[in-house]
Structures are given as C-alpha cells and as structure tokens.
Give the backbone structure.
Amino acid sequence: MLIKRKEFLQIGSLATASMMMPKFLKAFESQALVPPGNKVVVVLQLSGGNDGLNTVIPVRNDIYYKLRPSLGIKMDKTAKLTDEVSLHPSLTALKGLYDEGNLAILNNVGYPNPDRSHFRSMDIWHSGSKSDEYWNTGWIGRYLDAQCSGCDKPTQALEVDDVLSLALKGEQANAIAVKDPKRLYGTSNEKFFKEVMKNHSADHHDEEPVEYLYKTMAQTLSSADYIFKQSRLHPTGAAYPNTELGNGFKTIASLIYSEINTKVYYISLGSFDTHVGQDAQQTRLFTQMNDAIKAFTDDLKKNGSMNDVLLFTFSEFGRRVAQNASNGTDHGTANNMFLISGGLKQKGMLNALPKLTDLKDGDLTYNVDFKDVYATVLKNWLNADADKVLGEVITCWPLCNIIYFLEKYPADRRKFLAQIFAENISANICGVLHWR
Amino acid sequence: MLYPPNVAGWAGGRAWIDSSTLMMRLRIPQMFNDKDELNVAPKQDDDMMMGRKTDGTAAVPEKPVSPQKKRYGAIDAKIDWQQYVGKYQKIKKEELFTGIKKNLFQIDKSKVQEAVAKSIDQSSREAYIKSATVQLMSTPEYQMC
C-alpha cells in the first residue's frame, strides 16, 4: 500500500496526538456525545391546554373562587405549598418535590398576541416562532441540526410516541419517534429492509430525491438498532405505573442510564381540553402524571441522576379565568410551567402568581416569554448556542439563575458568566425581579 | 397526509419525510396484504375533538387502559388481485419482474432487483406477481411516484 507523504503526515500527527493526550483531555474529544452524568432534558407536553389556575391554585384569592363558584378547589382539599399557594389535590408527588427543593414553578408564561386555536398555539410553542410567523422547523429540531450535522444517527433528541412532533423536526435532521425501542427495532430489522439497504449502491447522485429517502431509511435502521441496544444496557428495575406515560418514562429512564447520546426526550399527555366536566378529566390525567413523575424521580434519585435531569412541563395555552356553563373552562392565554430537577438553583415559586385584578378581556396576561425559557434551557442546561437555535438574540432572563452552571466551567469562567447574567437581570424587561 | 405539521400545511419537498412517516409508508403495502394490525396511534386533534371522543365521552377513560390491552384493530382491506394479476397474463415469465417494476416505478435506475428477488414467492405465477408487487411497493423507489 502506497501512502502519500501528505496523508502520512496527517495520519501520523493524529495518531501521535491522541497517543500523547492525557486521558482526561480525551474526554473532550467526543463533545457531541454525552458523557455519562451529563445533562439531559425531558419535555412533558400537556396537550389540549391545561387549566393552570386549577393546577397552581391561588387559595387566598377571592376573585378565583368568585369566578369559579363550582370549579374552584377549596383550600382544605388542595396540596398546600405555602400560605398563598396550593397544588391540585392529585399532585401530591409534586408537592413532595417542592418540599425537597426539587421543583420550581414559573407563572404567567406565554407570548404576545396569543392564539386560541390548539393547533396554531401548539405550533408556536413547537417552532418558537412569533404568533404572526409560520415556521416549518421546531426548536429541538434546530438544536438537533446544530448537534448532528452529518452524523449517521439523529438520536440526540427522541420523542416517545409513534408520530414525530413539529418541535423535533429540523432543517437538516429529524429526531426519531420511538414509543417502544423493541418494536421499532423489530420493524426496522425486517430482513427485507436490510436487503434493500444492502443492495442500494452509493453510485447515485445525492441530489436525487430517492437518495434522501435512502438516507432517512439508513438513519432509521441504524438508530433503531442503537436505541434498542442502549435500552437493554441498563434497563431500570424500578416499578412504573402501567400507563402509556408510565411506560414512556420507564423507557426514558432506561435510556438515561445507558450510554446513549440523547440529550432531549419528548413525551406528551392529554387531552387537557376540559370544556366539559373539567374536574374529573383533569384529576384522571393529573393522577397519571403524578404517579409517572413520582416513579421517575424516585428512580432518578435512587440512581444518583436527579441532578443531571431537568424535566419541564408546558401546555399550548392556559384557560380562561372564569368557568363556563358546563363545569369546564374555555381556551385562555398565559399558563404556568413546572421545572423539576435536583440541579435547580432557584426553587419553589419563581415569580408572582397571576394577577386576577389585571385581566385582559377576562384572560391572564403573560410576563414571561416561553422562548426565554427555551433559551435558558438551551444555554445553561444543554450548553447549546441558543441564539442560533431560536433565530434571534434573546435576552437571557433571570431564569438563568435557577439552573446551575455546567460543572465543567472553571471557577473564573463561572464568575464571568454570573456577572453577565447579573447585568442582564438588571436590564431585563419583565417586572418580576424582586425574587432574585 | 391528514396530519400536516402546522397551519401552513405540508411544505413541499422533503418536509413530510421523517423516520416514522417513511417506515410507515414502507410498511403499508405489506400490512394491507397481510391484514395486519395498525399499531400506530395518531396524535389527538383538540381543535376538532375538544377533549372528547367521537361519541362525546371524555377522551380520558375513567380507568387508564393498560397499553398492552389497547388494540387498534386489524386492517380490513380487500385487494382486487384478480384484476391485477389478469393484466400480466400475456407477459412471459422472464419478463414478468421487469414488467411489474415498469408499472410501479417512475424511476428506473435502482438495483432493488436482487433484494426483492430473495423474498419473492416462487410457488405459483399468481403468488409470484403478488409478492413481487408488494415487495416492490415497500421500497424507497416506489415512494417517488
């Protein structure tokens, strides 16, 4: 074999460099992969527009009980957090997490000119667009684009579902939707598909549309293989409720304990669209959610991963303050979000409850833009370029404070970042600074 | 096709292709032929359903259904094979494969032959046509029409 001098130098210098490199430096080589113990985000979507006011309940507010004569939940039934605030009676595990300091609640999250259509508002939350823009990619999809340019397995983000959401579709890469790693593996492992793939020679031109299908197929087959093998590496032994959500969280936990390179997991629960007979439906869903989160966080704590996982919830909108004539509530605007992790810097109630005296056409007004929450999660938890993913420079809002800086920053860098955040906080637009 | 990604509808080009939509399409001919169970749940559409099921009951059952018990039902499809197979009556056995391929594919560059050939049922002429058709329809090339 003839090696050209240039090639020899290239290969040679690389070989020497990696041989000489101390082991701890080698760890930085595979930055795109997630080293064990690295930070992971789990997004729990509450589809249908969850009623935030019966989730985080202002138990001392007369207006709440006046506008919801039958739907308002009496203080003695609720899961009490503080003198002012309670959770829905079914959310006992979240109260537990609150008491331990593993839960943060962010109120009044929304966006300007809110849309009341489920489809459209979910679209805005998924894509991260303004309410007058229409984007074809999602915020996690664009994160994936940045993480996975030219990689063969787009597994940095996974949706635990049969169908992929817009949030996980990027310009270049799409995440993988997998409800059951074993089933996906079974389907994609069919001999026929493998044969077709094998016989497909690479001498075609890349521009041909069919090549893109082959590329997607190849990525799916290799991802299915990879995900399945990882899911069997350290399957969790903990008991989970036998619901779709429970099984989903069990899959996520098993993957978190493996060596998979996934940084974002996405899972949904619904429907929270409670126009009629809200109490029963929300209670059933919250019971499922509460039990699944309880099993998941207990499991994480037992395995020492609680500090490495950030679980947050969102819904496409909240509901109107007043109840309707069918013991339900109709589509509203701003809503609250739960953030659950052992790595939260600020815990508990992050900002003030919604002002029920300051309604706009009977709806809550937002004062935290959800895109700032994304920016904070991307920057401070996933260490990603949030401006690139979200398309514009977003003010890093005080929420920065709630999440620990990545441990890998040296002390001086951490100090520098803290200073930048402090400056941003003083210059920020939202009027909820007093809790800093 | 009934679940576009957003209000803007389906964008042209590659937008519809992701791992789940592609694998679904590749499996459809086989599932119709075998009357398989369609074990894929579409997402809920709250704008249409308002949190209820089609019969007006709450979308969330009082007791959660265990995922193992959830059944979507087998596909009930009838394929008019007789008419289809009849069309190939006059074609010689050796040219049969090329003929089927020409009918199904709009592009003719692929080397899927060898892959497909391995899984074709050779037991009878009819079985040959049926299995070759289903297999060819399960390739990425077929998705290009």
Q: What stands out?
A: The mean pLDDT of chain B is 75.
